[in-house]
Each structure stands twice: as C-alpha cells, then as structure tokens.
Amino acid sequence: MHIRKSNKLSNICYEIRGPVLKEAMRMEEEGQRILKLNIGNPAPFGFEAPDEILVDVIRNLPTAQGYCESKGLYPARKAVMQKYQALGVKSSDVNYIWMGNGVSELIVMAMQALLNDGDEILIPAPDYPLWTAAATLSGGYVRHYHCDEGAGWQPDLQDIRAKISNKTKAIVIINPNNPTGAVYEKAILEGIIDIASEHNLLIFSDEIYDKILYDGATHIPTSTLTEGRAPCITFGGLSKVYRTAGFRSGWMIVTGDRSGIKDYIEGLDILSSMRLCANVPAQHAVQTALGGYQSINELIEPGGRLYEQRQVAWEALDAIPGVHCHKPQGALYLFPRLDSKMYQIKDDMDFILRFLQEEKVLIVQGTGFNWPTPDHVRFVFLPHVEQLVPAMERFTAFLDRLRK
Ligand code: PLP
C-alpha cells in the first residue's frame, strides 16, 4: 500500500519543528547534548507559571471533566472581555470571544472560515510561519508584505499597498513581532488600518507577546485604534506572558465594526462547534491570569531574567563581524542578519544544519519565517545566561571558521 499525504499539504511548511529538529533529535538519541534555541517555550528553561494560575487549574479539575460551551467558559471569556474593555475597546463583548487550544488552533479556524481557493491575504515577511501555513492550507494565496529591517522591522506601508488586489480579503499584523522583536509604532498601525478600511480588509492582530516588552516600549493593541472602523480580530493567550504553553490556552476576540462580517462570524461559530470546545481545565487559569498582578513585569525590567538574557545574547551577536541584529523591543527572539558578502550563505537550512552538527546548538533559518533571502537566523533567548553565553561563543566560533 502506498498512501500519500493530501495535495493540500504540498506547499505547507513549518520549519520551526522541521527537518533540522529531526537531526537534533537523532543526535540526542546518540547521546549528544543539544542546546535548543529553536522554540519559544518558556517552561523547559525554568520560567514557571504564576502559582495562583496552577492553583486555579488544580482546584477546578474535579469540575472540569466535561465539555464546555464551544466558545469557551463564561468566566474566561468575561475576563478576556474585561481585558480589552480596560484598554478602552468599548466593542469588546463576551459574545464575540472564542477560547481555543492555544492561539494556534484559532489561527487555523480564522483562516478556514475566511478563505476560498485563490483568495489573497497579506502576511508580514518575516512572519510567524503558522499564519502562512494556515492560510495556504485553507486555499488562500499569501502575499508577503515587507517589514523594513532598516526601520526597526516596521511594516512597509507602501509595499502593503502595492500588494493589494481585488482578491485581497485580509491583513495579518504580528505585534510584538515574532521573529523580529519589533513593536509597532502608532503611525504604522494607523496606516495599516487606513489601508484596511479603504479596501474592506479584515484585520487579524496576533498579540500573543503583548506584555513582553523591553526598554519602555509601549504596545498599542490594534483593537484600540479600530473602534467604529474596520473589524479587528485579536489573538492572545497564556503560552508566553503566563509561561504555560503546555496548557494550550488562547483566545480570539472580534471588535470594531462587526456589521459587515456577520456571515464570517457564523463561520467561526461553525468551526468552533465542530471541535466541540477547548481544553477546559486550562480555561480556569484565564481569569486569574488576566486580573491583578502581572508577574511577567519582574522578568522584563532591568535586572529581570528576560531583560538580562536579551541583553547578553544581543551584545554577543552584534559583536560578531558581519552580523547585525536589531535589538528586540518585545517577545523572546533575536533575528540577526549575516552579511551576504562575508558569509555567502546559499541555503540557510544547510547553514543551520552545519551549525547544529558542528556546535550542537539548534536555531531556525530565516527562510523558515518566509523571509525571502538566506541571510537571517532566529535565536530564542530563553536559556539562562550560563547557557546563552556558551551558545553565542559557539556561534561566534562557527562564523569565524566560515570567514577563513
Ligand atoms: N502567534 C505567535 C506570534 C507565536 O509566536 C506563537 C507561538 O510561538 C503562537 C501564535 C502560537 O501560540 P499558542 O501556544 O497560543 O498556540
């Protein structure tokens, strides 16, 4: 028997967990120790969830055995509603909130509900690649808009305009951004919203890193700027800010002018009821997580673990000849550029594979984030400084050898 995967999957890739990870796992099976800087998963690096979240889940386990309503537990959705109301988003309404098994599930649902074959969607380059994969799987045609490294990786509004056609249905914003760490300026967000309003585009705003900010950067939720204007669908969750990626808990909220998207919202309801509901025990964490004291703040201020790790990793990278790294203002990643004349990388997957095999550190190639040229890589700065420093020394040594 020879069963092939469906044609739908022929253009789908998710390189963060791609072939190079398989090689890392093979090496581990041989007994080699690999430092994995490829996935933004805080818990394995010793970032623990706030205690009160764990207590909530444990206390509620006995009553969390059944399915819940497809949209999610009412107290969890109400907490999400209040989070956005507190930000000034008056259209935040509990009836337009869906809880999901992580933002990942909701991204796939949002794309499946929207796209017909050949419909176009604007997604940033570089991107968090699930967006491109989910849109493509849903039959959409992704037009990647350019984010400008020279301008701190802010989206290029001119490029967005140039890539709109009469088939474009939506635009995706990832802010704070994975992989670049950019936090978008108000004028840029306003510019995107103006374009979206002009062309009747739905706005998807992935804000899963909304509270992971450095050096006084301010995150402006897109939904605060779209009130009374374009409909905006915001994604958030517990994985990063509350360090519980394994709980698989996230939300999606539709705000702004919903009058023109009733049918689409019905589509979201159909898909959310088809998967019955999201993980119920984890939804009990949401109300406690979103209300009150935000323990993430201790990690991102000077002296905090994330702040210090970002600093150490960024300084080390930026000191390597021919490596330039925009200092991330948010999220958990560094996305350095390797000078193409100095390093002449033809295939960046091959490049990170060699780095893995020679130095036993796993990172992800820039093209895995739909960046068009093989001249960037992504590092996760979650490990302790004691692990990050040797990892950066190994990268430095690897590049030293390449330059010779
Ligand atoms: N969106 C972005 C920008 C991410 O970086 C990630 C995970 O890395 C996700 C969504 C998925 O998050 P979740 O764990 O909620 O599925």
UniProtKB/TrEMBL annotation:
It comes from the Bacteria. InterPro entries: Ala_Aminotransferase, Aminotransferase_I/II_large, PyrdxlP-dep_Trfase, PyrdxlP-dep_Trfase_major, PyrdxlP-dep_Trfase_small. The keyword Transferase applies. Keywords: Aminotransferase, Pyridoxal phosphate, Pyruvate, Transferase. SUPFAM superfamilies: PLP-dependent transferases. GO terms for molecular function: L-alanine:2-oxoglutarate aminotransferase activity; pyridoxal phosphate binding. Its cofactor is pyridoxal 5'-phosphate. It is an enzyme of class 2 (transferase). Its EC number is 2.6.1.2. Transmembrane segments: none annotated. It holds the Pfam family Aminotran_1_2. Residues 35-383 form the Aminotransferase class I/classII large domain. Belongs to the class-I pyridoxal-phosphate-dependent aminotransferase family. This is alanine transaminase. It comes from Marinomonas spartinae. The gene is alaA.
